[in-house]
Design brief:
Strand order of the largest sheet: 1-2
Helix content: 55-70%
Number of strands: 2
Radius of gyration: 36 Å
Order of helices and strands: HHHHHEEHHH
Strand content: under 5%
Shape: rod-shaped
Length: 217
């Protein structure tokens, strides 16, 4: 086990130590240093007050040593197991950070897919395209086993595979569909997700399925 190289002297000892003569206080200090180093004790030569101070100070040193040894043993055992157990909340913070990083990666991927940073879209359409990117990144970074699309719970892998294929052509197609249904859709986010999901195989076809039945105004 590791060796302790320091010990604590508490501020509240000053009340008792101030009652000692300088000589007695010096003997007390030497006695404490001998004690923590395992050396032979120093006599107090009849200084009862100094001996009393040494008694309660050495008792506190022993208690501190016991507590330190318990912690040292725990650190040693945790080291053998690969490190200390995570503190309360650390797992949650780590998981949140991982999710945030995953979302960022998915967001960058989809923005590149839909050519968000180019001059591909009219300025008025950019907010909607950005919303598509946000929606797609949410889907791609989700860890849920099922995702609701078109009013139905669908396997996450199926949904994600569709959104991985979503590109600028699909985005343009969805923009067109949204303009045609403007003001007639109650759940805009739900309709958007459904349109994006279906656009990966319906873009270029005569039309997209009308999902207003699933999302009434």
């Amino acid at each position: 086990m590791e060796e302790k190289k320091a010990f604590l002297l508490y501020k509240n000892y000053i009340k008792q130590v101030d009652m000692l003569s300088d000589e007695a206080a010096g003997r007390l200090f030497k006695a404490i240093l001998h004690y923590v180093n395992g050396a032979s004790p120093v006599g107090f030569e009849g200084e009862a007050a100094a001996e009393m101070c040494f008694s309660f100070i050495s008792d506190q040193i022993d208690r501190d040593m016991d507590e330190w040894q318990k912690k040292a043993k725990a650190r040693s055992e945790n080291g053998k197991k690969g490190g200390r157990p995570p503190k309360a909340g650390e797992d949650e913070k780590s998981e949140t950070a991982e999710k945030s990083e995953k979302y960022k990666e998915c967001r960058e991927y989809i923005e590149e897919q839909v050519c968000l940073k180019g001059d591909f879209y009219d300025e008025a359409d950019l907010p909607i395209v950005e919303e598509m990117c946000e929606a797609a990144a949410d889907i791609l970074s989700s860890e849920e086993p099922y995702i609701k699309i078109g009013g139905k719970m669908r396997p996450a892998e199926t949904v994600k595979s569709r959104f991985m294929d979503f590109d600028c052509e699909n985005a343009t197609y969805v923009l067109d569909r949204l303009k045609k249904t403007a003001g007639r859709v109650g759940n805009t986010r739900g309709y958007l997700l459904t349109a994006m999901y279906n656009s990966t195989f319906e873009a270029g076809a005569s039309g997209i399925m009308d999902y207003r039945a699933d999302f009434p105004p």
